[in-house]
């Protein structure tokens, strides 16, 4: 098991993964750019962004590229959900599971069962269009007390969406307080997340 800031898994790996822009440690920005690209390619499709964390900011996740054959513990993680009536899929640029991965398979094989409550996942779920409109991050959460980046930043500029209330709202997205961002998102547990995907498959 490894404890670390999100994405600190590949020593600053940068470039492209599965054809999408990628920078390790910055999954929220990777998903932003990937979601924008996919929504441009497939207009009208239903995409949602999932922030995965909990009140203790310690979530166990299996099948991550950071640790082969081990479970890692992240403070948060961000993935993209494609809802479809035939089969909903999750796009996770850091998983060892298929890409994209059927949502039920991803949820079953990414989150170990029987762990203590402080290590179980919660999911902040919001439509991709809301994420692209409201998300912002100045990357200050990735700067140490000495003023150095914990992991090299992406080559692209920090994200400041057109309707963002400030240049840095990432903590509100990571927070699992359901009152935060309530007009545009909801917070679900793992069972509710499975139901959310299943209901859309059955629609």
TrEMBL record:
Tell me which family the UniProt entry assigns to this protein. Belongs to the NTAQ1 family.
Sorted alphabetically, the keyword list is:
Hydrolase
Give a Gene Ontology cellular component term annotated to this protein.
cytosol
Q: How does it assemble?
A: Monomer.
Any idea of its EC number? 3.5.1.122
> Per the record, what are the reactions this protein catalyses?
N-terminal L-glutaminyl-[protein] + H2O = N-terminal L-glutamyl-[protein] + NH4(+)
Q: Does the record carry Hydrolase as a key word?
A: yes
* Taxonomic source organism: Pristionchus mayeri
Reading the lineage from the top rank, the first entry is Eukaryota
GO MF term set: protein-N-terminal asparagine amidohydrolase activity; protein-N-terminal glutamine amidohydrolase activity
List the protein's name: Protein N-terminal glutamine amidohydrolase
Every copy of the Protein N-terminal glutamine amidohydrolase alpha beta roll domain together lies at: 22-196
Q: Write out the function statement from the record.
A: Mediates the side-chain deamidation of N-terminal glutamine residues to glutamate, an important step in N-end rule pathway of protein degradation. Conversion of the resulting N-terminal glutamine to glutamate renders the protein susceptible to arginylation, polyubiquitination and degradation as specified by the N-end rule. Does not act on substrates with internal or C-terminal glutamine and does not act on non-glutamine residues in any position.
